[in-house]
């Protein structure tokens, strides 16, 4: 069903637990393909050698959008808009009581749940390095700074403000900011799930809201503590 394999389709439709396993595997594989697709888009753009930064960014956005659209939304499109009208018996699972749209709804919730879990995992750095030390300081009533696991982040935050050289050296050791496109993509992809497929499962709206809320805090922590300051493009 998911990958055009008869054996995989038979395995997925044999029971609800097998269907969940296949959906989780598909969601994880789609997420794992994201970084390689982004790297491929950059390599293609570098090979094409655009004259201006505007053309470079425009074509990079176009390539990444097309590839990620097919990667993340392709199977949902097939289950929702193609198979119910072309060949509904292919994905029909009568013994499970699920038709194509029901399977698409299950896949939608699974993909958003995986995104939500990964967002929670990405939020751990913010909680450990920022929220937890502040909570401990309030609990203990101490104004002394608490050491964190990230030495560079601690150096950047604890350096005196008048000692700019120390702060600049600490910031230069951080990773470079890779631009706003990939940060925007995280939110736009989530809204894409809602705009196209929310009618299949209203729970998707709540999951998408949770993902967007977590992503705002993750991006803010990454910009403030884990990467260098963003460089503004020249006009």
From TrEMBL:
Q: Which GO terms describe its molecular function?
A: chloride channel activity
Protein name, entry field = Anoctamin transmembrane domain-containing protein
InterPro entries documented for this protein: Anoctamin, Anoctamin_TM
Annotated Anoctamin transmembrane domain ranges read: 30-231
Query: Where in the cell?
Result: Membrane
Q: Transmembrane segments in this chain: where?
A: 184-212
A GO CC term attached to the entry: membrane
Q: Does the keyword Cell membrane apply?
A: no
Report the main location listed first in the record: membrane
């Amino acid at each position: 069903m998911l990958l055009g394999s008869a054996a995989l389709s038979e395995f997925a439709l044999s029971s609800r637990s097998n269907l969940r396993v296949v959906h989780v595997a598909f969601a994880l594989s789609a997420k794992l393909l994201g970084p390689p697709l982004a790297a491929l888009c950059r390599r293609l753009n570098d090979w094409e050698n655009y004259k201006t930064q505007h053309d470079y960014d425009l074509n990079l956005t176009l390539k990444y959008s097309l590839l990620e659209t097919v990667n993340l939304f392709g199977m949902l499109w097939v289950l929702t808009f193609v198979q119910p009208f072309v060949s509904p018996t292919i994905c029909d699972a009568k013994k499970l009581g699920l038709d194509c749209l029901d399977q698409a709804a299950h896949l939608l919730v699974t993909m958003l749940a995986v995104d939500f879990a990964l967002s929670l995992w990405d939020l751990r750095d913010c909680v450990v390095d920022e929220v937890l030390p502040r909570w401990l300081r309030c609990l203990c009533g101490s104004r002394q700074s608490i050491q964190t696991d990230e030495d560079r982040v601690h150096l950047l935050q604890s350096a005196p403000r008048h000692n700019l050289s120390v702060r600049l050296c600490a910031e230069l050791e951080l990773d470079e900011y890779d631009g706003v496109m990939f940060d925007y993509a995280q939110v736009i992809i989530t809204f894409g799930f809602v705009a196209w497929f929310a009618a299949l499962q209203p729970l998707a709206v709540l999951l998408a809201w949770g993902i967007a809320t977590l992503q705002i805090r993750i991006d803010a922590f990454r910009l403030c503590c884990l990467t260098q300051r963003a460089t503004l493009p020249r006009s």
